[in-house]
Structure formats: C-alpha cells, structure tokens
Give the backbone structure.
Amino acid sequence: MAPPTSVLLPTVAWTPACREVAAQLGPEDELLLICDTDADPIASRETDLPEQVRLLRAGDPEGCSGKANAIATGMSQASHDRIVWTDDDFYHPSDWLAGLHADYAVHGPVAELPFFLGRDPLSLLCEPLYALGGTLGVYAAGKAWGGAVIFERGDLDWEDFLADLSRTVSDDGLLAEYLDVTPRRRVRSVPIGGTIAESVERHVRFTQIARRHDPRTTLLTSVVMSLFTLLCLLFPLPGFFLTTGILAVVYTVFGVRRWTVLLAYPATIVQLPLFGYALARRTFVWGGRRYRWRTKFDVRVLDEEVSS
C-alpha cells in the first residue's frame, strides 16, 4: 500500500482535473488546491470541497512566478513525506495516482511526459517542435515534468529547494536540478494556446526556461538548429521527407497520432526565427502577469501594461 501522500495542484478554478484527482485519493491522502487570492473563482466554493481537499492561498508572488509561488506554498504546508505535483489542464485517468505510486516503488522518483496539443495556428505549427523538446527531450534528458511527478522529502534538499523556488520562474526547471527522476514513457495530452498571442508568450517562456536552466544545451541546440535549418532551405524536398520521417518516429514512439506530424518541415524552417525572437524578448506574460527574468534567480513581477 502506498504511504499517505500530499498532491499539489495549483489552480484558480474547480476544474475536471480537480474532481479526477480527488476521486483517486487514499484514506490518508490530501489534495492541496493552491490559488493566489480570494479573488480567484475557486475561493468561493471552499466550503463545498470534498473531504481530504484543502484550499491554500499563496498570495501574489514577489520575486518569483505565480506557479513557483503556489508550489512553494503547497510544499511548505504539505502534511506528508510523499509528494505529487500535477496541473489542472489535462485528463487524469482513474489509475493515474496509483500508477505513479507503482512506479515509485520500482524506480524511486518518476515523472510522466507531456505532449502539447495546439489550439491556434502558431501552437499547431509548433507541435512538432514541442514533441522534440518537451516530450522526447524531457524523456531523453531524464528531467521532471511538473504536471505529473512523484517524490519524497528525502529525495532532494528540501529547504534549499524551497528557498530557490521562491526566487525563480520555472518550478519543474528547478526541480530537474535538485531531483533525479526516471521519466516514464506515459504521455499526457496537454492542450495549449487558444490565441496566437498566448502561444507567442508560451514559446518565449519555454525558450527562456531552457536558457536559464540548461544554457550549454541551449547553445548547442541553437548551433545544430541553424545548420539543420540551412540544409532544409537548400534542399527542401529531402528536408521535407527527413523532418517528417524523424517526427513520425517520435510521434510513434510516444503513442501519438496527430496530423501535425506533417508540419515538421515548416516548423523546422520557422524554429530559428522563433528561437531568436524568444531569446531577445525582455519580458513575457504567464497567467496574467508579466515577468522580467534576468537571471535564474533574478525575477521581477511587472505590471501587465509594461512593454515587452
């Protein structure tokens, strides 16, 4: 039997994911829903939450992102040694939590993988790029995805991690530096985007997370990306078949069947200017707040109106 577990779920609303996770709790488990303030919609239904579900208010972030602030709040108030992080934007099947516990018993800290599903023209175009970086890249590098990761207090330097979490942007980017995980080849479909503007901001954030937490790999990736894009431009037909074939293998390995694999070639062509733009941006918007992220531990929360 799995030990008592604290599940952390940052959210501002009672979503289907909240119900799905709450239904999987064991008799001693707890689900910590973490919002910002009483202005969030979920605060109005605090008295109607199921048993074993607590609502925490993280407050407005200062010197870190809203997500990092929420996770830090949840970890500081978690009752149990075993911790699970998850998000409110994907489907949690009825065996989701049990699967994480079973994996931990064999491998220690483990994480699942995201596959980002675009909902607007830009995020659709970027699907192949995110399949390479956000799915294959995370799996191959053995990194944690904050949407589905399980660990225990003793698996990382708890106090130092919480201190660093309160002065950075990316919760799972930082976790990857503190925690050795075994990614499972179990993919969760995560819808993203909705408008091109939202997808631009997300792409900037994804790129800057890679830059801050793994600068060497980011530099190497930029060089390889430049050379590969040049070859695809010089030899478009072979480039089309090569990029499509590579992405078809990636999609197949992770059990994804999406027509967006056919966008592999145009995605390859636009990846370099998108990458350059994302690195050049001084600020980005995430969850209704604008951030200036100067170094890994130098974060300023700005007014929404500040120019990027």
In short: The domain at 1-107+144-180 is CATH 3.90.550.10 (Spore Coat Polysaccharide Biosynthesis Protein SpsA; Chain A). The longest strand covers residues 182-192.
